[in-house]
Amino acid sequence: MKNLRFEKLELLSTVERKGRTVKFHPRLTVIIGENDVGKSSVIKSLYWAFGAPVRMHPEWVKAKVKARVSFSIDGERRSIIRDGSAFGVFDENGNLLIATRSVTSKLGPFLAKMLDFGLVLPNKSGVTETPPPAYMFMPFCIDQDSGWKQSLESFDNRGQYKNPRKSVVEFHSGIRPNRYYELQARKTAVQLEIAELGRDRQVLEKAVAKLNLQPAFTGTEFTELEHRESVDRLLVELRKLRAARLKSTAELADIVDERELVTEQMRIARLAMEELGKDYIYASKAEAEIFCPTCGTVHDNDFTHKFSILDDREACAQFLRDQHDRLVVVRKRAEKVETRLHDTDALIEKVSGTLAEKGKRCAKAPPNIVL
């Protein structure tokens, strides 16, 4: 990995209306204070700003803190801002390099490229991927909650990967170089391509198990009774499938309605933010007193008035952040239902095809013989 140095940490809470700036010495910084004054929260805020899942104090969580960390990588200055689940990385001149809400799929790979962090780990699907930023900092963060009881346990990783400790130690100690993990990723990709051959069959088998259905594909029937029983079984399972599809469709419709409602609320909040921004620009350029032609009253245009406009705008911004997080959850629910619908449709097509085939074979069979 490249040389990463923290230079400055800035914290802001619009809930508590407080802020703090902490500058770090290039060689060593020691933070001294009494118990429960926030020493650990300062250190954890550094890693939190980079997307690491730290265990923060409940009061810190309630404060809805925003953070900006100024840092350098091999002498090149950068900064990262975190506001809730939103991240932005900027260069030395303030140009935006990346803006995202996805830590694992977007922020992690971006920071890994900046830091030359080559570790890859297999996820629960067996696909190798660049782990989140927590794995870049894991050996360097030791907190008083879990880290000093057991090594590499300061972050709340929640079993994202299976037994990652050995790989983390081998990478950070230099036992395994970046090249090793590049080849490991290629090997895993080839293995997944081989496994892809049986994917469709596995999807159908899982769908059958999920819907608690019995295989509906029978062999040769030698009597009319056997044929009727076979067709009846197929019809029963087809009805179950269609009922399951109807239920999933209704669920998806509710989710779509909720998504549209959230989207509309976000649109209104954005419009309100835009208008409040215009109000502030006007107030900042206006005189100390403003005459209202509607009510005929003269209003003070002092600091309190200007601050109240910005406070309202920040309330809209916080509402947008909360609704965006809600929208992410709604979209994930929709994806699950859509996957379930796809699997059900595949089974309906399979069963309907079998019924149609039986009908054709029966029509072609000689009298008193059912195939």
Automatic annotation (TrEMBL):
Xref: Gene3D superfamilies: P-loop containing nucleotide triphosphate hydrolases
UniProt keyword list: Plasmid
Protein name: AAA family ATPase
Protein's organism: Mesorhizobium huakuii
